[in-house]
TrEMBL record:
Domain Methyltransferase: 48-137
Gene3D superfamilies (UniProt xref): Vaccinia Virus protein VP39 (3.40.50.150)
Key words of the record: Methyltransferase, Transferase
Annotated GO biological process: methylation
Domain of life: Bacteria
Official protein name in the record: Methyltransferase type 12
Pfam family, one: Methyltransf_25
Amino acid sequence: MLTEREIESCYLGQFIPVHYHHNMLMDQNRMHGFKSAINYAVKPGAKVLELGGGTGVLSWFAAAKAEKVYCVEFNPDMVKEARKMLAMNPNGHKVEVVHADAFEYLPPEPVDVVICEMIHVAMLREKQVEVMESFKRRYLARFGAPLPVFLPEAVIMAVQPLQQDYDFEGFHAPIVQFQDTAASSRGTTELAAPAVYSVLDFSQPTDTRIAWEGQFRIDKAGMLNALRFITKNILAVVSEESSTIDWLNHSMALPLDSPVQVSPGDVLQVSFQYRAGGSIPSLQAAIRAQVLATASVEAAIAAAELA
């Protein structure tokens, strides 16, 4: 009988199609960011582990400097794909593609760097947080401290109120939209600046439960009918330069069940909670948004205080 996690895996991205991995190869921002971060984090002669290897490209980046790379992949189709791709490339022989579950696998020896890219916007759907936390517990039990360096090192998540156009050639459809952060999005009006709601540091114990309640000061008049979720991955911290190597996911515009009319100066309160690795609808159902004070009411209160 399938466990709850195995049932979830069928729906939450653990066996995503091969062509999805091919699309990731074509994502220049992702590829360049990871290549730069891996080149910085992996020192000559290092031992490296990748959890959820896909095509094996990130393991291959590591193999340029590493002595040995263990590339763990659960999907048998991707295991074949990774082995085929790595055989075509120099240093591919330094990568051992292991057909195993990242929730259970431990390398036969301590490693210096762990790469894990099971990242979705807002840390939903894919199992980044759970896999990393499970690995840390098992690694410490077998090898003891210190833990390896994790890549990405951290993730910063923010949320932003939007007015989003849902008209598609006359067809009204309030759908989830994934938006390129490098380009303006069609029919999107930003009603306030983004607010950071969570920072996850993977070198520290990380809770899978994410909850936030905060306020926005509305900048533009409009119909609040969506929230944009922004995910910035800190792939590596370059301490000697006081800088970071980052990768910004596509943002996610999530429609609200109950739109709210807002005006400049209004105070908007937003709250939500969800589990990292959970479904998008679980977050959508948990969102609450309401205007606490309108600009006109605040102006009247201010005038009364001055009187």
